Structures are given as structure tokens and as C-alpha cells.
Amino acid sequence: MSNEAATATTAAEAAPAPEPIPHGIGVSLPPADARAKTEGTFPYAADLWAEGLLWAAVLRSPHAHARIVSIDTSHAREMPGVRAVVTHEDVPGKPVHGRGRADRPVFASEVVRHHGEPIAAVAADHPDTARMAAAAVIVEYEVLDPVTDPEQAFEAEPLHPDGNLVRHIPLQHGDPSATGEIVVEGQYRIGRQDPAPIGAEAGLAVPRPDGGVELYLASTDPHADRDTAAACYGLEPERVKVVVTGVPGATADREDQGFQLPLGLLALKTGCPVKLTATREESFLGHVHRHPTLLRYRHHADAEGKLVKVEAQILLDAGAYADTSAEALAAAVGFACGPYVVPNAFIEGWAVRTNNPPSGHVRGEGAMQVCAAYEAQMDKLAKKLGVDPAELRLRNALATGDILPTGQTVTCPAPVAELLQAVRDFPLPDLPKDTPEDEWLLPGGPEGAGEPGAIRRGVGYGLGMVHMLGTEGADEVSTATVRVQDGVATVLCAAVETGQGFTTLARQIVQETLGIDEVHVAPVDTDQPPAGPGCRGRHTWVSGGAVERAAKMVRTQLLQPLAHKFGMSTELLQITDGKITSYDGVLSTTVTEAMDGKELWATAQCRPHPTEPLNEAGQGDAFVGMAFCAIRAVVDVDIELGSVRVVELALAQDVGRILNPAQLEARIEAGVTQGVGIALTENLRSARGLIRHPDLTGYALPTALDAPEIRIVKLVEERDVVAPFGAKAASAVPVVTSPAAVASAVRAATGRPVNRLPIRPQAAVVTDR
Q1: Are strands 690-691 and 686-687 parallel, antiparallel or unpaired?
Q2: Helices marked H in 125-247 — which ranges?
Q3: How far apart are CA 221 and CA 538, in angstroms?
Q4: Are the C-beta atoms of residues 315 and 97 closer than 8 Å to each other?
Q5: CA-to-CA distance for 405 and 334, rounded, in angstroms?
Q6: Do residues 120 and 137 lie in contact, with contact meaning Cβ atoms separated by under 8 Å?
Q7: What is the pLDDT of residues 461-479, one digit of tens each?
Q8: Which of 641, 631, 628 is nearest to 743 (CA)?
Q9: SS3 content of the chain, % helix, strand, coil (to 5)
Q10: Mean per-residue pLDDT for 622-650?
């Protein structure tokens, strides 16, 4: 052996062994797809290709409300390269669909009810040909006056065969004659927020030899999408398969079903694969948005600031179709008083159809709108009483064991006062005067038009709450299979990874339970048992719970032979870092040795405790669980220009249990930033039902330059005993709370009421200085 080789060998022997890579619950395990997404090689629906591919385009209504006199597709069909044109006449099955209620036509046939409603779809050899052919479909309209004011919908002629009223909830709790010494009132309006996904909708439909079709979509609820498509196509569900492709971000229902359904119809009609990639304008026109909301409130309190009664009227604009508006209204009415103890509450809630763009599920739906209103009321009450706003909130803070206005007892951890105290006591950021003037960050950006002398700083608070999982009797169930062979574990679960981190969590659960490092999560399709939609933290709770149960069943299969051999129970054995040991040290072996080449697998379900619908008085145990958040906002306002800069948002949140610290922090920061958009910039404007500027130039999303300093002051880990791992949903409650906190801070800086979101510049201008 040469000296060099000997030296190398000695150095290798002397080098310390590499430390094992941390894994399991509580570790910041990076996502498995992080590198592919960073390098741009991750496959999204827009990247898909198939032999003999055709391209699709959809003709959408230019009117918000019109009667269809005739549809002439002859010119489009005669164009070279056009392979098929479909309208309502070509839908062989159920002609309507919808997330919550099936009331939305696949293609408009007699009446157009909103701007952008699909009329026809075309398949052609080239995308440009498809678009030109769609434009060549001649539709004769009789334009009608649109109903765009939801208050007018009560008296207007029915816009839909089901009428204009989607749902009415008259909540009654306590004594209607109760009154307080102090009374404050207010009226509030919340704008229309768009989910604005990173990638617009795209998909591929491939016909099958059995006469069925496969849909490759960025679906967040593949089994529901499959069942809807099968009903529309007149096929058995087994002949329709949905394969989930990469989801480029989801803050709401990711896919517009009105986009998916024409795609499969064209594939079935042509016998060829058909691809459709929506433009950004089509994306804005097609998918659902956050409900614009009108709220009227009256708060009663005693001389000490304790709430006596809350009265409210809540009106949600559902747009043209019902979608999930009934569920959003239940959340709005149920949480109308916020995380406060209110002995008497009388809340009237309505969701109505209009000719405005459709509304539906967007993160924190219902809860976000009422949070902005009840927190504004708490600021008014504090001002009238001459009490510190944080102190007033503390006097009324909800806690475990208290009762909601729906009559439901809060059985989950509710550390509302602890959260508020944490953000209140956190040090405030430095004032601009403490830094050199050329480093000041003023409202309007660096070197903005504002003058330093016109800047006012404000500090405000927001307390928010959301429900987790479905409501009012929804059957929340998920199924998962865990299979182990040759030292590798595979998880099969139809829970879609939408950016919430489920695939990472599933790997951590199996690592923690079985001590196996290499864990793979299989791609999702509808050949697997259903797992439900990816929203409201349900996959962390329900699908994660199913994975945990399946992994524990495999663990029992693994340990039982060893326990039997040594005459002990499996509870006396533990798995740590790939090693199986007994409590007394007699047994010590590796997981690989114990497997001995066998394949072990188990399938399990998780189903949370049931809920019930609200009754005719708005009473009932409608929610599985709740999560809470407190945010203190610091803003600088140019009171001459009305421009606002969010300096800092300090947040405290109850998370139940931290499963992945880095992932949790990212989810919270993303939710807070989305809330800043609601507060200051995001509003999909329309005029007489027509969306104005349906693009990312006209719709102002907050960028990295707009994101404030986000200080996560405290994460309360008080486990919810009914939730797997004790964890709570993390991303929705910051979205709900941060707009209210920002508005509160602007009120503190300007003394103005700020009763509309997003905050308009004129609402922050002070003229009587």
C-alpha cells in the first residue's frame, strides 16, 4: 500500500461518521419535490403532452345577463383544422354541476347569468385555430339588465329556477330584550378577492378504449371531480379516471369544473387527446372568488366593556350560482361575534344570487368577512369607553368551555387571551425618526411622493377564528394504505398536495411510526379510495390520521412476531432510528432484520366525530374544531395621500402541535401576506357585472416588496385531543385575522372609521388636522 493510500485510509477511519438526517414528527423535513420545483422540472398540467393531441378553446359570454336567442356553430365547424364543436346540446348526461349545489350549467343554453359563462367549446389541430373557431361561433343575445346589488336580489325577478335566495340563517341566542349601557353601530363592505393561483387552469383529457375518459388535472378533490364528470358525460364513475398533476398553488378550490367538463366532452367526441390551457383572463372569468359581503353590526356592552349583546345582518353575494355559499354563510353566522364571550346574539344571514362573478370557497370564507367587521366594532367600543383596545378584547376573550352563539360548547383548546397578551407585550418596532432619513421606508415605496411630516404610525389588533374540516354534518373521511418492503415504505392516499405539505407530513408520520428513512408517497388518482378536498386543514387532520393508523397497523404486524418470541407485548417494544429495542434491553435488532424480506401493508380510515346542521334558530354543533390567532399590526400612513405601509405584523397562534417547524412558519407567513392583499390591494372590480381588467396588471397582488416584517411571537402547543397528533390547521386563520389587524392599525393612525376592505386611499386621508 502506498503512503498516499495509507494516509487516505487513516483519514477515512479518523473522520467522524456522518450524523443521521433528522426525520419524523417535529422536524423540518424538506419537501420531496422541492428540487424539481426549484429547477423547473416539476410536471404541471400545462406541461403535459400526448400523441395526436388536439387543442381546446372555450367561448364565453361577453354579457353578465342575457337571453340566448340562437347559437350558430356552422362557421366554426367548417374551419380547416377544427375537429369538434360542442354546446349544451352535446352534453349526454346531467347538464348542471356545482361544488356545493348542482345548479350551474355546463354550457349556457337559454340564459347567460354571469360574465364569462361558457357557451361552447372547440377542439382543433392548433391552439390558434381553436381560439379563432371559438370566436367564429355566432351567438345572438337579447341583453338583459343585470342584478348586481345583492340587496336588490330580494325583490328582483328570479335569476335562476331555484330563485335568488341561496340560504337564510336567523341565529337566535339568549335574551332578545337584553341591552347594554354602551352601544356602537357600523356598516362594513368586503371586496371580491380572487384566489389568483400562480398557474392558470390547464388540463388534458385522453379517451379510453372502453369508451371512458381520463382527465389529467390539477384537481384538489379528484373523486368529486370524477363523479361530476361522469354524471355530465352519462358514464359510470368507473369509466372516468382523474389523475392529479402538479398543483401550482391553491388557496381555494383549484379547478373550475366548468373548465374541466368541456375538455372531456371534446375528447369523447373526437376520440383524441385534448388539451386546454386557460389564459389569465379566462382564469379570472371562470373560477370562483371570495364572497363580497355587506355587514351591519350593533354591539351592546356594559360600563366595564363586557359584551352584553351582538346584533348583525350579513349579506353574502353568491354571484350567479350557489356553489359553496351555504357553507360560507354558516361560517359567517357562526363566527359573527368572533372569539369573544357573547351571552346574547341575534344574527341574520343571507346568501343571494346576482349576476356578478361566481363566489365560492376561498381560504377562510365567511370567517374573514365577519372578522373585519366585529374587530372594527371592538375598536369603536374601546374608543367610546376610553379603554385600550387590547385590554377591551382581553376582558371579553373566549376560552375553552365557553359557548358560541350557535349553542356549541368550545371543547378544543382556545387560548385566546394568551395569544393576545403575547402580541400586545412584544416590543414595538423602531420609529422612522430613529434611523437616518435617507433610509426611511415611507408609504408609497422608496423615494415615494409622500413627505415625512405627513406620516402617522398606528398600532392595531385583530383576533380571528376559523373552523376546521367540513361543517353541518359533512362526512369527513379519508383512507390511506401504508406498504413496506425491502426497507422502503410507500404511502397511498388520494390527499392532494396543494402546497399545504401533506406529502411531507405523510413521510414524517411513517418515519416516526416505523423508523424507516425512505418513504415515498404515490401519485394521486381516482383508482385510490377517496380522501376528500384539500382545504380547511382536513388533510393534516383526516388524511394524516388515516396514514398514522395504517402505519401503526403495519408496526403491530412488524412487532408481534418479536413480542411473541420474547414473551412480551408489543407495547414494551419501541422503534427508534431504525432499531427495535425492548424496555429491558434484552431485544435489540434493526427494522430491516425484523422484516426479513417480507412485505407488510395495512389500510385504515380516519373519520372525525360527527357534526350537525344548524337548526331554524341557527343552533347546533356545526363545527368539528376551531383554530385561533392574534395579530398586532403596525402601519405607517401618509395622511395626505392615503397610502399605507404595513411595517410589522406580530402574530401568536394556537397550532395544537408543531409537526414541521419550517413548513408551519411558511404557511403562516403566506397566510398573513394574503391577508395584507385583502386589506390593501386585492379587489376584482366589476361594472354592471362585467369584470374590469381581468389580468394581473389590473388585479393588484402584494409582491415581495409589499410583504411586511412578520414576527411569529408565540405558537401555543396545546394539543386538541380529538385531532390526530393534536395539530390544528395553520394557514387559514392568519388570512382571516391580518386584514382586520391592518384596518385596526389604520384607524389608530388616522382616526378614520375604515369600514371597507380593501382600504381605499381616501379612507386614510385626514383633512381636519
Answers
A1: antiparallel
A2: 127-136, 222-233
A3: 12
A4: no
A5: 7
A6: yes
A7: 999 999 988 888 888 889 9
A8: 631
A9: 30, 30, 45
A10: 94
